[in-house]
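Troubleshooting: if your tokenizer reports a length mismatch, compare your output against this known-good record of 247 residues.
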Amino acid sequence: MLSSSISSPPVPVLPSPSLADRIEALLPQTQCTKCGYPACRPYAEAIADGSASYNQCPPGGQQGVARLAQLLQQPVIPLNPANGVERPRPLAVIDEAACIGCTLCIQACPVDAIVGAAKQMHTVINDLCTGCDLCVPPCPVDCITMVEVSGANTGWDAWTQQQADEARARHDFHVIRLVREKRENDDRLAAKAAEKLKAVAAESAATPEQQAEQLRKKAIIQAAIERARVKKEQQAQPSIKDSKDAQ
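Known-good structure output:
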């Protein structure tokens, strides 16, 4: 009697988290840039490669320093006051009567926690706000106030791991959205340039002066198209490299 065996499908082997991955997982993900880096991930990478210290994150507070010190097997050191101070968790509050709808705060928010449209009132979604303060400086009418909402609790006592994980996911989506919108805008501009080039080529040019002007216009448009193409290729290079590194 023949016996049959059913082989199990191979289990994919996931790569082990890098040191930067493990450091990033310990950061509060407010994306506030107080550490001196544009987001939490670049700061984690800087700690991992030794170019930044592990005491530069005010939202994580002294407890955050201790967490990173334990991971890195380093002594617990004071939070660097040059990066800010540990404080209760704030939320951004917009004075809706003073808001002029400029959208600058919407553009500044790293987690898309502010909603509104041009020349219309803007509103902060409290559950999404990380208290990063980044919306305050660009406001031209100074209508945004940071209000502390965690009482006496500061650092990680004012912020949960679930909130950090959700903020990280929203920031990742924010970055992807910006890249997509830029690509779509570039594509629209390229299509307009191509149409303009066709229109110029279709223009009648009877005299030498008109022909010279037509050639000049075509050269300008073609140069702009070429610059856009080169820029697009250059911007794609890091993505190609990242995808290869991930393989």
